[in-house]
Amino acid sequence: MRVSIIGYGRMGKEIEKVLIAREHEIILRIDKENKDDLYSGAFKNSEVAIEFSTPATAFENISTCISIGIPVVSGTTGWTSRIKEIEQLVSKKGGSFLYASNFSPGVNILFNLNRRLASIMNGIPSYTAGIQETHHINKKDAPSGTAIKLAEDIIVECDKYDTWIAGETRPGKNIGIESFREGDVPGNHSIRWESEMDSISLEHKAYSREGFALGAVFAAEYIHNKQGIFTMSQLLGF
After folding, report:
1. Half-sphere exposure at residue 70, Cβ-oriented, CA atoms within 13 angstroms
2. How many CB atoms within 10 Å of residue 55?
3. So what's the pLDDT on residue 140?
4. Domain ranges of the chain
5. Fewest C-beta in 10 Å: which of 65, 114, 123, 233?
6. CA 192-77-150 angle, 5° bins
7. pTM for the complete prediction?
8. Which residues pair with 188 in a beta bridge?
């Protein structure tokens, strides 16, 4: 595939390594220094774009790709209050789009297990849920998009919750998400259900960014030559 990388930070460079290893052609590496390349003739030769930029720029990047007919995979978090607009644009233009708050196959297994456990806990009111996430000190958004998705999935599956809050879980129909920023941590997430008698936990720890990058490239390969809105659950067969 001919691929453009939008956002050439840590994740962009990891994605570059995976693309080269899988023998894809990189058309452009677009970052803040050459952001106008997004509107260039060269960019239009891309068969797919992989977008890991910033919350402030993601919407424009993604909408530009869809408007000119380039399938786009995005892993940028902190902008998704506007994701419905992107989905409408995909429908209007006959485009192709896959968004994930986390492309790690392991994290997507965690999402699946989290939903199952929350469904079970819907019938056992003695347990209370809480979420913790830890990332590197340069991560711009908190809580992480992954932690928010974990909370939102619990809310869907478990009637005792209707919202999430930043910080520890407090009495009421809320799930607390505690966020920590430490060193160069790629991303750790845990869900803990606690009662007076015991506790049950699900946890995922990323040892590097390679798993995120590999998942993003898998997603790009998956949506290449497809039309519509896709998810990692579809890619992984859940």
Report:
1. 30
2. 15
3. 79
4. 2-103+210-236, 105-205
5. 123
6. 20
7. 0.79
8. 134, 205
Q: What is the pLDDT of residues 163-174, one digit of tens each?
A: 999 998 888 899
Catalytic residues: 135, 139
What percent of the chain has a predicted confidence (pLDDT) above 90? 87
pLDDT tens digits along 68-95: 999 999 999 889 999 999 999 999 999 9
**What 3-state class would DSSP assign to 8?**
coil
Residue 174: what are its φ and ψ, rounded to 5°? -130, 155
Report which DSSP code applies to 56.
Answer: T
Burial class (CB in 10 A: 0-12, 13-18, 19+), 184: exposed
**In this structure, are residues 54 and 32 in contact, taking their beta carbons and an 8 Å threshold?**
no
Structure tokens at 149: 């998705």
Which CATH code fits 105-205?
Answer: 3.30.360.10
- What is the C-alpha to C-alpha distance for residues 71 and 161, in angstroms, rounded to an integer? 36
Supply 210's token pair.
């390679």
Name the residue with tokens 């993601």: 58
- So what's the pLDDT on residue 26? 98
What angle is formed at CA 102 by the lines to CA 181 and CA 47, rounded to 5 degrees? 130
What pLDDT, on the 0 to 100 scale, is given for residue 87?
97
Structure-token pair, residue 163: 């919202």
Confidence band for 208, pLDDT divided at 50, 70 and 90: confident
Domain 2-103+210-236 sits in CATH at 3.40.50.720
Among the listed residues 24, 30, 31, the one whose alpha carbon sits nearest the alpha carbon of residue 2 = 24
Q: Is the pLDDT of residue 199 over 90?
A: yes
